[in-house]
Specification:
355 residues, alpha+beta, seven-stranded mixed β-sheet, 10 helices, globular
Length: 355
């Protein structure tokens, strides 16, 4: 099945994961909107870790593939859902990548609406979701009633100034905590055991009467697939011979993204998060990367920590298409899911992690 948009002169076709991976490997250096989340290993790992199906739409001009839109399919009840990215994959944004497609939401909107029409027909989808790296300058774009638009936040720290200038730019409490951690003898070391990371993550969520959205299989896929692909830095904070905290940092040759962090509660007084993030920043500069990214959490204490590194606060852009009935059903389902998770977390037995 093909959907042709005269305004873009592009034809959209379903392609295989192998075709996408080969095209990405050949062209990724020249793709201006490419992010670590577009890496084929990331798409495969997150799909396997969540049980979602990875799908790929190729963008063709004449017979030449000049772009692609990767995404995931997931069924919730009777509704087939498509996301580029899908929620639950720990992916900040995806959307179209290609040569000569444009870089702003205003330039990409025809491609996105055409892709939404295509996936709805090709995979019988009733809900499509796209998130782009940057929001439009005017806030929102004029779309029909079946489209909703969101502007989630990201903290982005430019690495161009180098380590010395970035250190000087940190808030004083951030520098103080990094020094404190070093003086305490905390070392940053590779973390190779996803099961140990997940145990720490369970403890972290349990302290907040919650549970992780992702299971241990998810983190096993990330570490097992992305470290060999050179796309993930999993680091632990080691204190007195024991890893007491850890962070996962996804990266390519342009930017690094903080994905997830965890720690043991008995060492909560030690500033491990500061050391882990600063280590990622130093390594990013050393590798010639341009940006350190960490998404806003809407939890003030967490965001204050992120703000201590003096990043810029910028907006991503999410466009959602669905019939009005699906919007209402989805809101009810999400509310029920979060109530169930909260109830399970309150009833879960508490135990400590050793190792």
């Amino acid at each position: 099945m093909e959907v042709e948009k005269a305004m873009t002169t592009l034809i959209t076709k379903a392609i295989s994961g192998e075709t996408y991976a080969a095209w990405y490997d050949e062209t990724h250096v020249d793709l201006p909107l490419r992010a670590p989340f577009h890496h084929p290993a990331w798409l495969e790992a997150t799909a396997r870790g969540t049980g979602m199906k990875p799908v790929y739409a190729g963008l063709f001009r004449r017979n030449e593939m000049i772009g692609a839109v990767p995404g995931h399919l997931f069924r919730r009840g009777p509704v087939q859902i498509y996301g580029s990215p899908m929620r639950g994959t720990m992916t900040s944004y995806l959307g179209p990548i290609g040569v000569g497609l444009g870089e702003t939401p205003e330039e990409l909107i025809d491609i996105i609406t055409a892709c939404s029409q295509f996936v709805r027909r090709e995979w019988r989808v009733l809900y499509t979701r796209f998130t782009l790296r940057n929001a439009p300058a005017g806030g929102k774009l004029p779309l029909g009633d079946d489209w909703s638009q969101q502007r989630p936040g990201s903290y982005r720290l430019s690495l161009d100034a180098g380590v010395e200038m970035l250190w000087k730019g940190l808030k004083s409490d951030c520098r103080r905590n990094i020094k404190k951690g070093r003086q305490a003898g905390i070392e940053i070391v590779p973390l190779e055991d996803p099961h140990y990371y997940y145990k720490m993550l369970e403890e972290t969520f349990r302290r907040h009467n919650s549970t992780s959205t992702h299971g241990k299989e998810f983190f096993g896929e990330l570490i097992g697939r992305l470290v060999p692909a050179g796309a993930l830095w999993p680091w632990g904070a080691r204190y007195e011979g024991q890893i007491i905290a850890a962070g996962l940092f996804l990266h390519d040759d342009r930017e690094v993204h903080f994905l997830s962090g965890a720690s043991l509660p008995e060492f909560g007084s030690l500033p491990t998060s500061y050391l882990l993030h600063w280590h990622a920043i130093e390594k990013g500069v050393e590798a010639g990367l341009r940006v350190f990214n960490s998404d806003a959490s809407r939890i003030r204490s967490i965001d204050q920590f992120k703000e201590s590194f003096r990043p810029a606060y910028e907006r991503r852009y999410t466009l959602i298409w669905a019939p009005q009935l699906v919007y209402r059903a989805r809101k009810l389902a999400i509310a029920g899911y979060h109530r169930l998770r909260h109830w399970k977390a309150r009833l879960a037995p508490r135990h400590r992690v050793h190792g």
